[in-house]
Amino acid sequence: MAINYQERIPNNVDLGNDRRLQRALEHWQPRFLDWWQELGPEGFQSKEVYLRTATSVDAKGWASFGKVKMPDYRWGIFLNPEEKDRTIGFGDDYGKPVWQQVPGEYRSTLRRLIVTQGDTEPASVEQQRLLGQTCPSLFDLRNLFQVNVEEGRHLWAMVYLLHAYFGRDGREEAEDLLLRHSGKEDNPRILETFNEPVSEWLSFFMFTYFTDRDGKYQLKCLAESSFDPLARTCQFMLTEEAHHMYVGETGITRIIRRTLEKMTELKTDDPIILRKAGVIDLPLLQRYVNYWFSSCMDLFGAEISSNAAITFANGIKGRPDERQYEDHIARDTSLEIEMPDEKGGICIEEVAVRSAINCQVRDAYIKDCMVGVTRWNRLIKKAGFDYAIELPSSRFRRNIGSWAGVTTTPKGDFISEAEFHRRQDEFLPSDDDRNYVLSLMRQVTEPGKIAGWIAAPDRGINNMPVDYEYVVLK
Fold first, then answer.
1. Per the domain annotation, does 2 fall within a domain?
2. What's the pLDDT at 63?
3. Torsion from C-alpha of 13, 19, 21, 22, nearest 10 degrees
4. Are 339 and 395 in contact (CB under 8 A)?
5. pLDDT of residue 5
6. What is the mean pLDDT of the chain?
7. Any residues with CB less than 8 A from the CB of 389 and at least 6 apart, and which?
8. Segments forming the whole domain that contains residue 74
């Protein structure tokens, strides 16, 4: 399905034949551009960046690459092709035709889901807007901007759905998406993780590995929706989201590789000596893993959730890759989950599958996160060092669900609040850790040059060399 780039708003939804919708979106467009200029990447709006732009939703050749100034990027509305005779894949109406319009009884629930997903997209751009000033290379700077413009396009995707299917309420919600700001005291973003500052590149790589991976699983759930326009929108968003997680995984890999080079050269794993050498020691990196992974656990919601059960039963939001499950109705099945008991221990509770949907999605996410962690540990072992990075327990640092307020170590062992506060710098990045990481952040913009705390990438973008001028700063 080709994308029409002749229109003011690039799209593959035949926008030109719906003048009312087209006018509404063209009215929203300058407000989006004003937001981008004010809260998008600071200091680089006039610079040409080597970016990919979607030209089709065909997986074989869906994007082209070229240099463009970010405010001139062609943000647009792209949905996967409609699947003929698609039927509802889960819940009480399993096997019935999917919806091309919003059922009145599900209107508020669908609007809330779309707004919450849409709110995360500009939030991450705002969180990362100052990172360009401390980029470790032009290669990384370009990757940051690619992530940013695609988050902007994902915002467009959600705004299209709000305008096209939710009338005045949808238009008002679309306006509000530009009024909330990450970390703003009186009007913050909806989800707390998206109000956390991303002030240095270690956090950026953690965010794109862990938080964007949560986004992948939320999109995979929505891509199963019986509301077909939402499902088709999210299916294409997943194509772009894959690059964001790649940026995170390879970024952390390069940090580890550079640290291992110094550990081998200096014949030590002593964090003090390694910090003097200007690299990120592995225990510090582990504390960042603990922080960012645990921040994502609450994004999946409570372990037992009536809301999740209702949205599944009604066909609104499914499970990732629903086809892998044998039972798509899950009306009479249960599964066992760990819960805290009244004696300060753990008990196993049998819960209806529908009520435990969040657990199933969270478990799939954790398994996916382990893939990168396993690769990092292979690198460390191959270098001859006895250290392993670990994901913390899903019980650690929870504020939502059954484990909210239960204090544990990263391994999930119960401890008192007093002990947690006493050992907090052992579990999570300390002020000294954060200040040290910030001290490493020095902008490197000469083509082919890389900051000393991170290794060079294995390859360039789109078969271009690593020392290509990915961002034209002169």
1. no
2. 84
3. 70
4. no
5. 60
6. 96
7. 282, 285, 286, 289, 373, 376, 377, 380
8. 15-472
